[in-house]
Amino acid sequence: MRTLFNVVAAVVLLAGAVRAVSPFAGTWHATANGLPAVTLTVQDRDGKIAGTVVFYLQKRDGVGRPWFVEGGAIEALVDPRVEDGHLFFEVHRDSEGTNVKMIVDVAGADELRLGALKLTRIE
Questions:
Q1: Where is 10: in which H helix or E strand?
Q2: pLDDT tens for residues 41-52?
Q3: Distance separating alpha carbons of residues 73 and 88, to the nearest angstrom
Q4: 93 touches 99 (CB < 8 A)
Q5: Contact at 8 Å (CB) between 106 and 115?
Q6: How far apart are CA 49 and CA 6, in angstroms?
Q7: What is the dihedral of CA 18, 19, 22, 25, to 10 degrees?
């Protein structure tokens, strides 16, 4: 009986230790025009999602001129949550005083989609 108790206790402890990590957890990167476009970092700590997103500002000096990255803005994910296989979050927008809503989807192994952008896992 004691052995059965030990086995049951071990299974219960292991079940508590094995918690599914969000498929969105990690660092993801997208490019556009051959340059950095977005870097998304998502942490899943005991089912609580947090993270940041960097949007890179791309410019060019005229039609036919090469694109370049002029800077980037890092934003904390506001109200991030995973529902029905989608990552929902908002980013703060100072100029308008409202948040912009974003949806990220799993597009394949080590690949996410944010609108038309394909993000690949880098960590």
A1: helix 2-17
A2: 999 998 899 999
A3: 19
A4: yes
A5: no
A6: 34
A7: -70
- Compute the distance between CA of residue 64 and CA of residue 60 in angstroms, rounded to an integer: 8
Report the chain's C-alpha Rg in angstroms: 20
Strand residue runs (E) in 46-97: 48-59, 68-76, 78-83, 86-93
- Residue 39's CB is within 10 A of a number of other CB atoms, namely 18
- 46, amino acid identity: D
In the block, tokens 């052995």 appear at 3
Q: Which residues are bridge partners to 99 per DSSP?
A: 92
- 3, two tokens: 């052995």
Instruction: With 0.85 as the threshold, say if the pTM is over it.
Output: no
Ordered domains of the chain (ranges, CATH):
21-121 (2.40.128)
Please tell me the distance from the alpha carbon of residue 85 to that of residue 97, in angstroms, as a whole number.
Answer: 29
Instruction: Kindly report the number of other CB atoms within 10 A of residue 72's CB atom.
Output: 15
Cβ-contact 55, 62 below 8 angstroms: no
